[in-house]
Amino acid sequence: MSLQHSSEDKIEVMRTKPGQSLGCSIIDEQGREVPITEDMIQDACRELEKRLVKPAEQE
Questions:
Q1: Which residues 6+ apart lie within 8 Å of 34 measured at CB?
Q2: pLDDT number for residue 32
Q3: Which helix (H) or strand (E) holds 45?
């Protein structure tokens, strides 16, 4: 068994409807439970990509 995936491996992608809860939540500043949506995760990923710093090139 290998830790590497072959190019033939298939990973099923399950899409949700916009705004649909993913079954997990966060607690806001007022103590309310706020469902986490795919849109929230996508927004967070885009924000992280903006802050990505490329490593310095090595000689």
A1: 25, 26, 27, 28
A2: 96
A3: helix 38-50
Structure tokens given for 21: 């809860």
What pTM did the predictor assign?
Answer: 0.54
Instruction: Please report, for residues 21, 31, 43, 45, 53, the alpha-carbon distance to residue 28 in angstroms, rounded to integers and kept in the order given.
Output: 16, 5, 17, 20, 29
What is the gyration radius of the CA atoms in the chain, in angstroms? 18
* Coil/strand/helix, residue 1: coil
More confident residue, 4 or 17: 17
Please state, rounded to an integer, the average pLDDT across all residues of the chain: 82
CA–CA distance, 44 with 37 (Å, rounded to integer) = 11
